[in-house]
C-alpha cells in the first residue's frame, strides 16, 4: 500500500495514527469529516480515538509487530505522541509513509538531543547543561543558578521535572526525575509564553499560524488564546524560528514550537512537538483551517489550508480535578456563556491533572474570547476546585 511521494493520498484512503489520545481523536474526527478512514494504535483498548477509528490496534509504542499490523492497513501513518520506539518507526516506514518521519521524531523525543539540535542550529534557547548524575546537576546549578531538571524521556505536562535552587539540593532533584539522563535548564524569568504552529508538506510548502499566548499552572496548560497579544516583532521572530525549525528538521505534518519571552526581552525556544498541540485547539474555531485538518492535508500531500484567523478564539483546559470535586461539573452552565463550546475527550476515569477536555469560545478580540472561555470555566466548576488565573492587566 505504499504511496509514492508526490501523489496525494485522497479521501477514501486510510490514515493510521500512532496514539489514540485526545489529539488522535480530534485528528481522526477531522479526517473522518474529509472522508478518510482512520486506524489507530494505542496501549489502551478504550482510548479516546476509539469511537472515531474503525480499527484500534491495542499495543505499546515499542511493539514493532503491532506497528506493522497497523501500517499494512494504512496508506499513510502519522502520530499524536513522540514517544515512539525507533524500532516501531522503522517497522511502520517499511509498509506505509510515516509522516513526520523517524529522523525528526528521534531528535525531538529526547530532550537532550532536541536541545542540542536547536543550539547547534543556532536557534535561541536558554542556558542548559546535560546531566547523567547528581554531580552533573550540582555543577549545572553552580554555573547557572536556579534550574529545572527535565528527564530526557517520558515527561509531559510538567511531569519528569524538578526545580532546584541550590547546589545542596541537586541530589534530591536528580532522584525526583528518576535518576535519569536529563537536561538541566536555567530557570528563566518569563514575561509570557507563546507558541507557533507550522504545517509542512513533503515538497517543502509551509503554512504558519498566528501565535497563541499560553498560560500554564503547575506545569500544565491552563488556557490559550489566539492571537497572542505580543508585539509584531515578537510574533515575526516566533514565526521565523518555527519555520526555520520545521524546514531544518524536514517535518512533514505539524510542528508546534513553544516559546518564552523573558522579562529582559529575549525570545527563546522552550520545546518542540511534531504533532497537533494543546495550544492550538482554538484553531478549530479561530482559523480558516484547524490544526487537525491541516495535519491531514499535510500528511496526505493535499494543498495546505489557510492558517489565517477568522475570529479570535480561546480555550481553557478541563483537568480531572474538576470531576473529583464535591459537585459534578456544570456543562449546561458553561454552554450558557456566549459562543462557548464544550469539548470532551470521552475519558472514563478522571484523575488529578488528567486532560479530560477543554472549553472554547470566540470573540471580536483575544481578550473577549479568553474572557468568555474563562467565564465558561468558572460556570463549569461549581465545586471546590481553584479557579485558573486570568491574564494580568
Ligand atoms: N527553563 C524554564 N524557565 C522557566 N520556566 C520554565 C522553564 N522550562 C519550563 N518552564 C515552565 O514549565 C512549563 C512546562 O515545561 P515544558 O518544558 O514545556 O514541559 P512539558 O513537556 O511538560 O510541557 C513551561 O510551559 C513553563 O511554564
Ligand atoms: Mg511544554
From TrEMBL:
Q: What GO cellular-component annotations does this UniProt entry give?
A: cytosol
The residues listed in the UniProt record as binding ATP, with positions renumbered to this chain, are 111, 150, 155-161, 185-188, 193, 216, 270-271
Q: Which reaction does it catalyse?
A: 5-amino-1-(5-phospho-beta-D-ribosyl)imidazole + hydrogencarbonate + ATP = 5-carboxyamino-1-(5-phospho-D-ribosyl)imidazole + ADP + phosphate + 2 H(+)
- Listed Pfam families: ATP-grasp, PurK_C, RS_preATP-grasp-like
Classification via PROSITE patterns: ATP_GRASP
Q: What class of enzyme is it?
A: ligase
Give the protein's biological function: Catalyzes the ATP-dependent conversion of 5-aminoimidazole ribonucleotide (AIR) and HCO(3)- to N5-carboxyaminoimidazole ribonucleotide (N5-CAIR). Catalyzes the ATP-dependent conversion of 5-aminoimidazole ribonucleotide (AIR) and HCO(3)(-) to N5-carboxyaminoimidazole ribonucleotide (N5-CAIR).
Spell out the protein name for this chain: N5-carboxyaminoimidazole ribonucleotide synthase
